[in-house]
Write a structure and sequence with these properties.
Blueprint: E1 9-12, H1 18-27, E2 31-35, H2 47-56, E3 62-67, H3 72-82, E4 86-89, H4 98-104, E5 109-115, H5 120-128, E6 134-138, H6 158-167, E7 172-175, H7 183-190, E8 194-197, E9 202-203, E10 206-207, H8 209-220
Parallel strand pairs: 1-2, 1-8, 2-3, 3-4, 4-5, 5-6, 6-7, 7-8
Antiparallel strand pairs: 9-10
Length: about 220
């Protein structure tokens, strides 16, 4: 069976406690997003708590350290404090390369976020894809004075996202404004490997089991690609 005929994987981001991690996994999450310092956006927790949550989950659970750092030496040091299975780079590297991260952190998967602000995202994804394990398409805007690097709750141009899925050669997670009522359209129009969400399954900044159940019911209702 090909990867594209498998059910989409779901990453629940902005996890803020061990209890939230357990709740997300009980509903079917395949991966958890743990947000370190960001210039804006929801879900930020301390590195100490990230490490505690990452250590608490069952073997085989993917834990993503979301980092806004752009210097590989600083990212390596941060990961050694947090000990997640995966690093999600929410901004472009400014100092060092993905290869530096590979050498220093063998076995740790790399995810590069591409913020789909226009068709330039296609070239950005093509350049990053050979260096990483996954591409994640989000709706932030790193060009603002206060960068938006995720958690906006907005959708973006899914036609651009579809072209990235078709051409980048890596599994792609889709993020940005996903809800039960638009999930089937996202599935049909983009065809991603997985979905990533935060705001749509929270109420008053708390993970909401009713909203989680509704989202995973929508995932199970999806037909094949």
């Amino acid at each position: 069976m090909s990867a594209r005929s498998q059910p989409p994987r779901v990453k629940i981001c902005c996890i803020k406690s061990v209890a939230e991690a357990r709740t997300a996994l009980a509903h079917g999450a395949a991966a958890l997003g743990l947000v370190s310092h960001m210039p804006s956006g929801p879900g930020i927790i301390t590195e100490t708590l990230i490490a505690e949550i990452a250590a608490s989950v069952p073997p085989g659970t993917a834990t993503f350290l979301l980092t806004s750092l752009t210097d590989t030496a600083a990212i390596i040091a941060q990961h050694r404090r947090c000990r997640t299975t995966t690093i999600q780079l929410v901004d472009a590297l400014k100092h060092g390369t993905h290869a530096d991260l590979r050498r220093a952190l063998p076995g740790v998967q790399l995810v590069q976020v591409i913020h789909v602000t226009g068709e330039s995202a296609i070239a950005e994804a093509a350049a990053a894809a050979p260096q990483v394990d996954f591409i994640l398409l989000d709706s932030g805007n790193p060009g603002l004075a206060v960068k938006e690097l995720g958690g906006t709750g907005r959708t973006h141009n899914w036609a651009v996202s579809r072209r990235i899925v078709e051409t980048c050669g890596r599994p792609v997670f889709l993020a940005g404004g996903l809800r039960p009522d638009n999930l089937a359209a996202a599935h049909a129009q983009v065809g991603p490997y997985g979905f990533d969400l935060c705001n749509s399954v929270r109420t008053n900044d708390v993970l909401d089991e009713t909203k989680l159940a509704a989202f995973f019911a929508a995932v199970r209702a999806l037909g094949p690609y």
